[in-house]
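Private note to self, pasted from the team thread so I don't lose it. Backbone tokens:
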């Protein structure tokens, strides 16, 4: 089966490497985003998918815009049986979808039609979901609206962060993608339409979503810490400075009467923050803007916390 693989981030790498290792598949080329400046130094760097493709000796194509005519010419010249696409980062024009006979097959990190969009893993954790999954689908002109092929359910660990869940899903996804391609090749898969009436969206994250509202319950704030890792993270203010915070909810304790949201309780040995409904968050780490992350104990000692101080003021 002749394949063009289309993807960009680390999430897509396990599937590329796995498909390349199987003799029944031929990865004729990889399409990925152009090289971009990254990191604090803004040095030009390759996408994780490009690095993996070059290491495997697979030709790489990096159109600035995949809508341009040369992208169509590239695909028509290769004439793939299928395009496997995972987190590429550009909308595929309808005229390109018709080139491979099996279409463009996408691995999406949710149980469609839930969490259509760019951030399904983050949004599932933010919303306190305990289960999620993977769906392969044949993409169409809509946003994750195409016919579903195969699905695989997965649990979300109670303390699992978005990067941790993404790594697990990427590993599970590589075999699901291979199984999907085999099923299409052999005619064993019956595509199923999505129920648009039950669809939900998972839009890109915005920085301001990381700002903690201490009126939320401790569990909800903890979900934001998990779901917004590594960016934008969960942040608040302390003495006029932006600071990122980490912690975990306490299920067996409530704040003393009269203590409002954001109030910092405890001593150098143990810091707790009052959240909505009197729930408590056990603070584990703090990172003041422009500084490195430190433990809650180091924060308490270094800041010489006074009684009655609050986050969020």
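Design output:
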């Amino acid at each position: 089966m002749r394949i063009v693989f289309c993807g960009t981030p680390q999430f897509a790498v396990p599937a590329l490497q796995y498909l390349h290792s199987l003799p029944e598949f031929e990865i004729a080329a990889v399409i990925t985003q152009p090289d971009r400046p990254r990191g604090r130094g803004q040095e030009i760097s390759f996408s994780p998918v490009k690095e993996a493709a070059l290491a495997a000796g697979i030709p790489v194509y990096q159109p600035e815009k995949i809508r341009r005519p040369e992208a169509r010419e590239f695909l028509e010249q290769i004439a793939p049986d299928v395009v496997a696409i995972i987190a590429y980062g550009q909308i595929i024009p309808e005229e390109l979808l018709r080139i491979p006979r099996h279409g463009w097959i996408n691995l999406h990190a949710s149980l469609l039609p839930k969490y259509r969009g760019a951030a399904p893993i983050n949004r599932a954790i933010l919303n306190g979901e305990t289960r999620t999954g993977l769906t392969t689908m044949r993409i169409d002109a809509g946003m994750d609206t195409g016919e579903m092929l195969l699905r695989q359910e997965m649990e979300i660990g109670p303390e699992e962060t978005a990067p941790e869940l993404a790594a697990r899903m990427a590993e599970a996804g590589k075999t699901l993608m291979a199984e999907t391609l085999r099923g299409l090749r052999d005619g064993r898969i019956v595509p199923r339409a999505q129920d648009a009436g039950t669809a939900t969206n998972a839009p890109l994250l915005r920085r301001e979503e990381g700002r903690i509202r201490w009126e939320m319950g401790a569990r909800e704030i903890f979900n934001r810490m998990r779901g917004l890792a590594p960016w934008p993270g969960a942040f608040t203010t302390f003495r006029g400075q932006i600071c990122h915070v980490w912690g975990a909810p306490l299920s067996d304790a409530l704040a003393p009467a009269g203590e409002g949201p954001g109030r910092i309780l405890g001593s150098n040995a143990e810091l707790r923050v009052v959240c909505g409904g009197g729930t408590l968050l056990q603070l584990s780490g703090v990172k003041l803007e422009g500084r490195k992350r430190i433990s809650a104990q180091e924060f308490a000692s270094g800041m010489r916390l006074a009684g009655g101080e609050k986050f969020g003021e």
